[in-house]
Backbone:
């Protein structure tokens, strides 16, 4: 394998912690997650389908997405931006479409997995920025200056009703339809992906979470837990999951917390990452 030369770049220094729990009701955990602080990537998926099919869908999505990101970034090919602001956004877009095809094909090849799909929310931190790709009703929040802000939009029937003025936010939270998604990875041969780009500042804390958290814990309590755990993310992820469980734990609950510490100049060779990935 030909190795590209290392290059000096301003990288974003991150601290990442994650925790997942089956919850108090479900028999299987259909959530999956992955992260790599070195490349700055965090991704979460909440699967759906028949017996264990959701677990299969979310696992395929995470594995495919992470492998695609590392492969594409480490390759010699020119990345076409197609109007996107950053190379990382374009790579996430391609990687998610590849993951969509992987889940879709697997569902059609295995009768037990027919109809399976998954949400996906991914955050890639780079050069003082964060590029986000999002499908479904998992969420990404940013905690900055003691304020919690939702950075993604839920792809649900209820959110569409809110957007068109038929529901208030309070009515949406109480609706029995709040978890019916209008967009998921792997259901159809193609999928629409929401892309966002934001500045990532030192001190920011980003939260990726499945709806098993947000259905059980309101935004104010989430913000309070993040505030109390800003210097100890392992404690924070545990507190968020435990709060969801103590409030009923009706679904699988998964959280990833990412703290931006500072920026540093360091050498990175993507070919070395590829070698490590495929040779162990």
Residues:
């Amino acid at each position: 394998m030909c190795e590209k030369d290392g290059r000096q770049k301003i990288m974003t220094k991150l601290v990442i912690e994650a925790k997942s729990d089956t919850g108090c009701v479900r028999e299987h955990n259909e959530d999956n997650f992955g992260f790599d602080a070195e490349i700055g990537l965090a991704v979460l998926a909440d699967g759906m389908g028949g017996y264990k099919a959701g677990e299969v869908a979310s696992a395929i999505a995470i594995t495919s997405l992470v492998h695609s990101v590392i492969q594409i970034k480490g390759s010699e090919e020119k990345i076409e931006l197609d109007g996107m602001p950053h190379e990382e956004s374009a790579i996430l877009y391609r990687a998610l479409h590849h993951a969509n095809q992987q889940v879709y094909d697997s569902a059609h090849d295995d009768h037990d997995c027919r109809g399976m799909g998954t949400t996906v929310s991914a955050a890639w931190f780079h050069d003082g920025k964060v590029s986000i790709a999002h499908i479904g009703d998992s969420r990404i929040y940013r905690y900055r200056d003691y304020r919690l802000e939702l950075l993604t939009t839920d792809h649900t029937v209820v959110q569409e009703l809110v957007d068109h003025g038929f529901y208030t936010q309070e009515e949406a939270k109480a609706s029995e339809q709040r978890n019916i998604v209008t967009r998921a990875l792997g259901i159809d041969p193609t999928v629409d992906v929401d892309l966002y780009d934001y500045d990532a500042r030192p001190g920011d804390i980003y939260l990726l979470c499945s709806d098993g958290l947000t259905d059980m814990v309101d935004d104010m309590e989430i913000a309070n837990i993040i505030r109390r755990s800003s210097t100890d993310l392992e404690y924070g992820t545990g507190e968020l999951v435990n709060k969801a469980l103590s409030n009923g734990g009706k679904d699988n609950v998964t959280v990833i917390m990412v703290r931006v510490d500072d920026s540093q100049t360091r050498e990175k060779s993507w070919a070395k990452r590829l070698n490590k990935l495929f040779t162990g």
Remarks:
- The domain at 8-269 is CATH 3.60.40.10 (Phosphatase 2c; domain 1).
- The chain is about 35% helix and 30% strand.
